[in-house]
Amino acid sequence: MAKNLATLRTDIDAVDRELLQLLNRRAALANEVGEIKRAERSPVYRPEREAQVIHGLQQANPGPLKPENVATIWREIMSACRALEAPQRVAYLGPAGTFSEQAALEFFGSSIEHVPCVSFDEVFHSASSGNADFGVVPVENSTEGVVTRSLDLLLTSPLHIVGEISLMVRHHLLRSSASLEGIEAVLAHPQALAQCQGWLNKHLPDAERRAVSSNAEGARLAASHPNWAAIAGERAGSEFGLHLAAQAIQDDAFNRTRFAIVCLPQKLQAPQASGKDCVSLVVSVPNRPGAVHDLLMPLKQHGVSMTRFESRPARSGQWEYYFFIDIQGHPSQPQIAATLSDLRDLCAFYKVLGTYPVND
Ligand SMILES: O=C(O)C(=O)C[C@]1(C(=O)O)C=C[C@@H](O)C=C1
């Protein structure tokens, strides 16, 4: 006979007690790991180990939990264990409610110390001065392309990329009332204004578009001005008690933003291979015919896949460019090591921005 609701709930309670015991056993082990790391003065955060843990559990998962549930749950468990070893301070473009904050929480789990910043420059400064352990910055949007300030900061900063996360970005028009009537100004980060320009042209052609430091800052300001609206995500809306005047107004329904996680190299051990890795680098070649073709030759010769190729002006006035390249693999693989060595020999400027596990 099928069990009734009360019996099933009693069974769930018993499983939860077991889980609690097991989770505390796990946390106690992480505490011991933390003691060893403190004695060795070695970094707490080990992204390749966390990727291995999640990957291994996904492989072993008999269901009915879905693989993505396994990843979400264990990211939170490891976040709590990591925080027991040492609190991890994470800088991002604030205030509370931004997509950058959401990216930080999805990447590190919720057991972090928040360091909201007013600009991408401040995020980099915070992570390089040691005020924060990590920074989270957007690097690319599927509608608007690269976030140029982030790439320019990566070029010159001492920070390394240690991970990435991609978020579905749904922008809403938020306001103190739920109507579109009488909106005089729409406030948002320039990236969000650009990602919603088609909708704004159609529905609010006469409203002023005002660029502010972040979408959440726009939401904060719109909360105290009845004739102002903000473009921001749901988190910012609930943070500042705003109404949804229009939902999902981004021009591309599949709008996504990729964020890079950055930190000082000494905050992380040389990353070991997780099985699914990426090397990000920035290079420049002399401005001569065929130079870009030559740049790509080592990749072809060694059979290495490139997943990103972006250019940024070198600001030399000579039509010279930096190329931001992502290649699939890990430097411990001979073909990747050979490709990197060829590129180093070939390029006038060569900087590895980081090697890190790729999230699906
Ligand atoms: O294996 C470690 O080094 C740990 O500190 C444990 C643990 C975990 O909870 O599994 C926590 C933090 C690290 O980032 C990796 C894994």
UniProtKB/TrEMBL annotation:
Positions of the record's site feature: Essential for prephenate dehydratase activity: 257
Keyword Amino-acid biosynthesis attributed: yes
GO biological process, one term: chorismate metabolic process
The EC number(s) this enzyme carries: 4.2.1.51, 5.4.99.5
Subcellular locations according to the entry: Cytoplasm
GO cellular component terms, semicolon-separated: cytoplasm
Coiled coil start-end: 5-32
Ranges for domain Prephenate dehydratase: 89-264
Reaction(s) catalysed by this chain's protein: chorismate = prephenate; prephenate + H(+) = 3-phenylpyruvate + CO2 + H2O
Pathway(s) it belongs to: Metabolic intermediate biosynthesis; prephenate biosynthesis; prephenate from chorismate: step 1/1; Amino-acid biosynthesis; L-phenylalanine biosynthesis; phenylpyruvate from prephenate: step 1/1
Residue ranges of domain Chorismate mutase in the record: 1-89
Alphabetic keyword roster: Amino-acid biosynthesis, Aromatic amino acid biosynthesis, Coiled coil, Cytoplasm, Isomerase, Lyase, Multifunctional enzyme, Phenylalanine biosynthesis
Molecular function GO terms recorded: chorismate mutase activity; prephenate dehydratase activity
ACT domain ranges (all copies): 280-357
Pfam family, one: CM_2
Function: Catalyzes the Claisen rearrangement of chorismate to prephenate and the decarboxylation/dehydration of prephenate to phenylpyruvate.
PANTHER family registered for this protein in UniProt: PREPHENATE DEHYDRATASE P PROTEIN, PREPHENATE DEHYDRATASE-RELATED
Name listed for the protein in its UniProt record: Bifunctional chorismate mutase/prephenate dehydratase
Organism: Ramlibacter aurantiacus
Gene name per UniProt: pheA
